[in-house]
Amino acid sequence: MKIQEKINKVIIKTGTVDDFFANARKMALALDRRETLNGTSTITFEDPHDMFKFLSPKRMEVYAAIKHHPDSITNIAKFIERNRSSVSKDIKELLRAGIVKIDNIVNPGHGRLKIVKLAYPQVVLQASL
């Protein structure tokens, strides 16, 4: 089976439940035909208000900081001059959505270090009102 292993783009968009299931069906049929998937993941919000709430200005500031320089939560918070706890909550939401990931790296002589990185090199936003 030819399944593209690396997803290189996430689309965050609005849509109906029917749109979601139509897209899932299309992908399942492509896999049944042993086709390569297009390397795109999709996060769909039924209500545009929920999408904009998820993509709050503060959360997008955290996203931009991670894109600029992947680092620890503490260093990201210092870089954008925000409370570590608030930044941690935003990162947990981005992590839960699959937009960021956390890599554990060895920090010689100091244990392990968690580095927050983007899960996708490209994020595309689409909203229909």
Task: Tell me what the structure shows.
The strands form 2 sheets. The chain has a 3-stranded parallel beta sheet with strand order 2-1-5. 44% of the residues lie in helices and 24% in strands. The protein starts with 8 loop residues before the first strand and ends with a strand. With 129 residues, it is an alpha/beta fold. The protein has 5 helices and 5 strands. The protein has helices spanning 17-32, 48-54, 57-68, 73-80, 84-97, and strands at 9-14, 40-45, 100-106, 112-118, 122-126. It has a single domain, classed as Winged helix-like DNA-binding domain superfamily/Winged helix DNA-binding domain (Arc Repressor Mutant, subunit A, Orthogonal Bundle). Helix 1 links the parallel strand 1 (9-14) and strand 2. Helix 3 (57-68) packs across helix 4, helix 3 (57-68) crosses helix 5 (84-97) and helix 4 packs across helix 5 (84-97).
